[in-house]
Amino acid sequence: MIAHVFIDGAAGTTGLEIRERLAGRAEIEVMVLDDQDRKDPKKRAQALNAADFVILCLPDDAAREAVAMIENERTRVIDASTAYRTAADWTYGFAELEPGQAAAIAEAARVSNPGCYPTGFLALVRPLIRAGLIPHDFPLSVNAVSGYSGGGRAMIAEFEGDGPEATATAFRPYGLSLAHKHVPEMQKHARIEHPPIFLPSVARTYRGMIVEVPLPLFAFTRKPSVEALENVLRDAYRDSPVVQVLPADVPTVSIEENAGTDRLSVRVFGNDETRQARLIATLDNLGKGAAGAAVQNLNIMAGLDPTAGLVL
Ligand SMILES: NC(=O)C1=CN([C@@H]2O[C@H](COP(=O)(O)OP(=O)(O)OC[C@H]3O[C@@H](n4cnc5c(N)ncnc54)[C@H](OP(=O)(O)O)[C@@H]3O)[C@@H](O)[C@H]2O)C=CC1
Ligand SMILES: CC(=O)N[C@@H](CCC(=O)OP(=O)(O)O)C(=O)O
């Protein structure tokens, strides 16, 4: 059976990446609206209700509007925006996050695709919290740097254009009011008591990201070793073709490591004498951070090979 998939927002940064991954797949027929119709509410409503699956690659408000336009029970939704990532009646589309999460995604009618930063953060900490190595009430922090495509078309224009919006910066921290939209999502799905302190930044590179969590293990009740942390993460991702735990035997880690792929790599650096650890994830904000995860979720929901079309 062929799955009919409508991509709403197909001309945007994430939409284009999803189209690339779905191109040439015999089991999927992709529907997109052409340039003159893509913002026409009637045409969108028609397509949204004709599809078996819709993937929303839109700003939050337009995503909410699209969901409200769906009037039938059959159309299933994957939303790439922030709109529903903490909504109780949506399934969180991070297949590797919990045992049973992929099975929940397979059955779900509404799936919210994780944010790019939460993907790195949750991959690093959730198995350790579940295993009790990081206490639920520990005040975590997360440092991260993203390529500028993470800010969509507007930020790409800022870094690549020469108009009044253009910037010449190589690197800049942001989210300085400590109220970034990803924080509630991180807290909810990590299942922790306090919002993490989130320190995002953007660098002059198109795609890719590094997400880090520093851990003062000496301050934890169980004072786990660095090896114990790595073992828990290895066990959590043992069967995953997408998330890999790599040995921490490299002197440095680059933002380009997984750029252009749908992989997510995790490493546990640390010092057992000082009982300090530094968890580092690398991924592509447009790969596992957006389009790769959306395609993985679509595969799972449609009962197809979960990794079909992914760049691994
Ligand atoms: N970029 C990234 O790394 C990631 C992005 N996301 C999320 O994915 C979603 C899309 O982001 P991204 O692709 O970066 O953004 P872009 O700005 O690149 O693309 C958004 C697209 O949606 C279109 N659009 C806006 N309003 C409407 C509307 N009312 N009806 C139909 N189309 C509309 C825009 O058209 P126009 O430009 O003409 O207004 C544009 O083509 C966002 O919610 C973002 O948060 C998630 C993870 C990572
Ligand atoms: C560099 C940059 O600006 N990044 C975006 C996040 C991109 C992303 O993945 O988040 P959403 O899916 O929630 O949009 C930001 O910090 O808002």
Automatic annotation (TrEMBL):
Record flagged with keyword rRNA-binding: no
Cited CDD domains: AGPR_2_C, AGPR_2_N
EC number: 1.2.1.38
Semialdehyde dehydrogenase NAD-binding domain boundaries: 4-105
Pathway involvement of the protein, from the record: Amino-acid biosynthesis; L-arginine biosynthesis; N(2)-acetyl-L-ornithine from L-glutamate: step 3/4
Protein's UniProt keywords contain Heme: no
Cellular location(s): Cytoplasm
InterPro entries: AGPR, AGPR_AS, AGPR_dimerisation_dom, AGPR_type-2, NAD(P)-bd_dom_sf, Semialdehyde_DH_NAD-bd
A GO biological-process term: L-arginine biosynthetic process
Pfam families: Semialdhyde_dh, Semialdhyde_dhC_1
Molecular function GO terms recorded: N-acetyl-gamma-glutamyl-phosphate reductase activity; NAD binding
A Gene Ontology cellular-component term: cytoplasm
Enzyme class: oxidoreductase
Keywords in alphabetical order: Amino-acid biosynthesis, Arginine biosynthesis, Cytoplasm, NADP, Oxidoreductase
Catalysed reactions listed for this entry: N-acetyl-L-glutamate 5-semialdehyde + phosphate + NADP(+) = N-acetyl-L-glutamyl 5-phosphate + NADPH + H(+)
Active site (catalytic residues): 116
Listed NCBIfam families: argC_other
HAMAP family: ArgC_type2
Function summary: Catalyzes the NADPH-dependent reduction of N-acetyl-5-glutamyl phosphate to yield N-acetyl-L-glutamate 5-semialdehyde.
Assigned protein family: Belongs to the NAGSA dehydrogenase family. Type 2 subfamily.
PANTHER family for the chain: N-ACETYL-GAMMA-GLUTAMYL-PHOSPHATE REDUCTASE, CHLOROPLASTIC-RELATED (PTHR32338:SF10), N-ACETYL-GAMMA-GLUTAMYL-PHOSPHATE REDUCTASE, CHLOROPLASTIC-RELATED-RELATED (PTHR32338)
The protein's name: N-acetyl-gamma-glutamyl-phosphate reductase
Originating organism: Sphingomonas trueperi
Gene, per the UniProt record: argC
